[in-house]
């Protein structure tokens, strides 16, 4: 069984660093681990000093540790071509140029880009990771809104697919217009996508197979955004496994940094009270940039998470 950990939170709180540290922790525990970024503003190639990952393939970094930054441009191109090919089965050849123009404009749409990324990620987790024998997948997500849409999309598409399949089975008119072969082709495609999104939906709600971690800093805005995110997750009967409080400043004799420490201490108390029903893990603010395996190991050591209990 592939175990999946989603790392989410407000932009700038250190999601990529925490996701990378968790991936390294799993890899060092002997699990074949894939670290995936769905954020178009990728950070993993900087954290691991990856020179070129333009081929959209796995990059082996460490024993049992692989990284994949999903290339948005390639995914939207592949996604749109696939949709266009299916659509052309149902229109006259004289309309192909008009359809191509339409889909070229669609490529520039942010919703289409996000759909392509989600489709790639879902196929990666449900299909590819099994085929490539990964035991653990760590997903470094884009900022909170993107993450919440990722968790809500499978339910919407699952229900939408069920509706389309029912309509397809009932529609005698469609068969008479398109013919059995094309109609069956459409129905098979709908079934395939319905099964795909259903499996991902079930994975999200399987506590033994998936976990959600939110990262936040001891500051007002990340706390408020995390509260809203948890409420939104609850509507889909999901909740985070734990919260990771990152970049906690140390005490200092300097007046400015002493004040920052007191402010952080105040917000740490609010975090402890507000999120008392979740496990909380604490990561200090380090004096250097977190780049490379050695620095990530220091972060990983500070995240005292028992890997065997992550999916309990």
Number of strands: 8
C-alpha end-to-end distance: 14 Å
Helix content: 55-70%
Q: Could you state the order of secondary-structure elements as H and E?
A: EHEHEEHHHEHHHEHEHEH
What average pLDDT do the residues reach? 79
Largest sheet: 8 strands, mixed
Structural class: alpha/beta
Structural features, described:
By secondary structure, the protein is an alpha/beta fold. The protein has eleven helices and eight strands. The protein has helices at 15-28, 44-47, 72-88, 96-106, 110-131, 144-170, 172-178, 180-204, 220-235, 255-274, 293-302; strands spanning 3-9, 33-37, 59-62, 65-69, 136-140, 210-216, 242-248, 280-284. The chain has an eight-stranded mixed sheet with strand order 3-4-2-5-1-6-7-8, sandwiched between helices. Strand 7, helix 10 and strand 8 (280-284) form a beta-alpha-beta unit.
Strand and helix map with partners:
Layout: E1 3-9, H1 15-28, E2 33-37, H2 44-47, E3 59-62, E4 65-69, H3 72-88, H4 96-106, H5 110-131, E5 136-140, H6 144-170, H7 172-178, H8 180-204, E6 210-216, H9 220-235, E7 242-248, H10 255-274, E8 280-284, H11 293-302
Parallel strand pairs: 1-5, 1-6, 2-4, 2-5, 6-7, 7-8
Antiparallel strand pairs: 3-4
Compact summary:
The chain contains eleven helices and eight strands.
Features:
disordered C terminus, alpha/beta, 8 strands, eight-stranded mixed beta sheet, 14% strand, 312 residues, elongated
């Amino acid at each position: 069984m592939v175990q999946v950990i989603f790392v989410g939170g407000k932009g700038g709180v250190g999601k990529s660093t925490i996701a990378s540290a968790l991936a390294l922790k799993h890899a060092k525990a002997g699990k074949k681990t894939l670290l995936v970024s769905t954020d178009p503003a990728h950070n993993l190639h900087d954290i691991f000093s990856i020179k070129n990952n333009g081929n959209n393939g796995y990059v082996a970094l460490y024993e049992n540790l692989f990284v994949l930054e999903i290339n948005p441009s390639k995914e939207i191109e592949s996604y749109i071509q696939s949709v266009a090919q299916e659509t052309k089965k149902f229109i006259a050849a004289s309309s192909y140029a008009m359809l191509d123009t339409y889909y070229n404009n669609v490529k520039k749409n942010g919703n289409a880009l996000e759909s392509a990324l989600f489709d790639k990620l879902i196929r990666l987790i449900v299909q590819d990771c099994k085929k490539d024998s990964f035991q653990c997948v760590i997903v470094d997500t884009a900022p909170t809104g993107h993450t919440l849409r990722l968790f809500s999309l499978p339910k919407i598409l699952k229900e939408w697919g069920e509706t389309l399949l029912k309509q397809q089975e009932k529609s005698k008119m469609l068969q008479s217009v398109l013919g059995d072969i094309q109609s069956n082709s459409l129905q098979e495609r709908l079934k395939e996508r319905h099964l795909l999104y259903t499996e991902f939906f079930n994975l999200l709600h399987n506590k033994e197979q998936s976990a959600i971690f939110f990262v936040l800093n001891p500051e007002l805005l990340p706390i408020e955004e995390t509260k809203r995110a948890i409420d939104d997750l609850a509507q889909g009967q999901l909740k985070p496994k734990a919260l990771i409080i990152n970049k906690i400043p140390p005490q200092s004799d300097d007046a400015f940094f002493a004040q920052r420490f007191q402010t952080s201490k105040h917000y740490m108390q609010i975090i402890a009270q507000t999120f008392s029903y979740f496990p909380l893990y604490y990561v200090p603010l380090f004096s250097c940039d977190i780049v490379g395996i050695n620095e990530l190991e220091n972060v990983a050591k500070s995240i005292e998470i028992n890997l065997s209990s992550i999916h309990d």
